[in-house]
Amino acid sequence: MTRPRLIVYLDEMTQACEEIGQFISGMTKHDFHAEVLKQRAVGMNLLIIGEAATQLADIYPDFTVDHPEMAWAEMRGMRNRIAHGYLSINLDTVWMTAIKAVPELLFQLRMLRQIHARGE
């Protein structure tokens, strides 16, 4: 039996958040600016989060309406910015997103997953 696509999107977003946390663990902003591989890894995971959020919003619009606490538009916007202007993205913005928004998003995703697993 396959998982409902909604759960797949939430799980993909969760995994990408967890990977970002692993990639930047113990790093400073200066370290991040100096490590292109980490920049690319974090950027790709932000793109994955934004793409999953975009697909989720397109396929399950009621779900996104029911959860306005989630930054759906911002995730989509970050995805578009990375996909269409990757070499000119602001690394300070990527860093701040990784250290501030991603941990909060991860918490929210885990809560959503628990709620959905209970059938609420």
How are the secondary structure elements laid out?
Elements: H1 5-24, H2 29-34, H3 36-59, H4 61-66, H5 72-85, H6 91-118
Helix pairs in contact: 1-3, 1-6, 3-5
Key features of this structure:
120 residues, mainly alpha
> What percentage of residues falls in helices of 4 or more residues?
over 70%
What best-fitting shape do the alpha-carbon axes yield?
globular
Largest sheet: none
Low-confidence stretches: none
What is the mean pLDDT?
A: 92
Structural class: mainly alpha
For the termini, the CA-CA separation is 21 Å
| Count of helical stretches | 6
Total number of strands = 0
Q: SSE order in H/E notation?
A: HHHHHH
The gyration radius over C-alpha positions equals 14 Å
Strand content: under 5%
Number of domains: 1
